[in-house]
Description:
- The chain contains nine helices and seven strands; from the N terminus they run βαβααβαβαβαβαβαα.
- 41% of the residues lie in helices and 13% in strands.
- It has helices spanning 19-33, 49-63, 65-75, 93-103, 124-130, 142-160, 183-195, 232-235, 240-251; strands at residues 6-10, 38-42, 84-87, 110-114, 133-138, 169-174, 199-200.
- The protein is of the alpha/beta class.
- α1 (19-33) crosses α9.
- The chain has a seven-stranded parallel sheet, sandwiched between helices.
- The longest helix is centred in the middle third of the chain and has 19 residues, at 142-160.
Amino acid sequence: MKRETLFIAFSTQKGGMGKTAVTVLVASYLHYVKGYRVAVLDCDFPQHSIVRERRRDEVLITGSGYFKRMAFEMYGKGGVKAYRVRESTAETAVGDAQALIDSSEKPYDVIFFDLPGTLNSRGVVQTLSAMDYIFTPVSADRFVLESTLQYATMLNDHIISMNRGNLKGLFLFWNMVDSREKTPLYEAYENAIGELGLQIMKTPLPNSVRFRKEMSEDRNSIFRSTLFPADKTSLRGSNIDSLADEICEILKLTGDGKE
C-alpha cells in the first residue's frame, strides 16, 4: 500500500538548540536502521549545514579505507542507498519537496525540512504551515523556555487551531538535559506547558558533546552522519533511538519501511 509522504520539521526560533543535529540523527536512524525512505531539504540559507555535512561525509569516505569498506558493505550489492540531501530555501521548499516526490520511482515516507531559526525569514511561516508535524527542542533555561513557548504558542494558535495549512500537531521535547537538574523542575515546566495547550514528548535528549561531533578521520566510531547510522555503542544513552521511535508512533509509521 502506498504511503503518504509526511513533511516534518525540527523547528525553533532559538539558536543553538540542536535542531540541525537532531534532524540528521533522526533522519539517519529512520532511513538506515528502520528502513524508511527519507529525504532532507536543507533550507537554512546561507549556511546549508546539512548539505555541507553530506559533502564532508563523502570526502571522508573517499579518503578512508575503513569508511570506504563500510560504505561498500552497506551500499554495495543492491543494498540501501543514501538518503537524498537537497539544498533549498524556505520560499521554494514545498515545491522542491514535490519535485523530489515526482521524480522518485518509490514513494518517500518522510521528508525532513531544516528551516531557518527565525520566523522573519521570507517563506518560513508559509513552509511551516505546510508541514504535517513540527517537533520543537526546548531546554530548562528560563530564557530559552520563554522564547520557545512564545514560538510554539504562536504556531498552535495561528496555524493549528485555525486550521490554516496542513499542520496536524506540534510537539516539544526536552533537549540538552543535564542529569544533575532536579525532576521537580521539569514537572513544573511541563505543567506550565500543558496549561498553554502544548504537548511535550516523553523522550528527553541528554546534554552531550557527541551531538556536535560529525564523522571524523580521527575515530572509527560513528554517531552523527548523513551516510551511516550511529553505531550501537555511540547510540547508547543518547535517546535518539527512543525519540525516533516515539516520533514514528506519532506519525503512525508502523513496522519498517522495507515492506
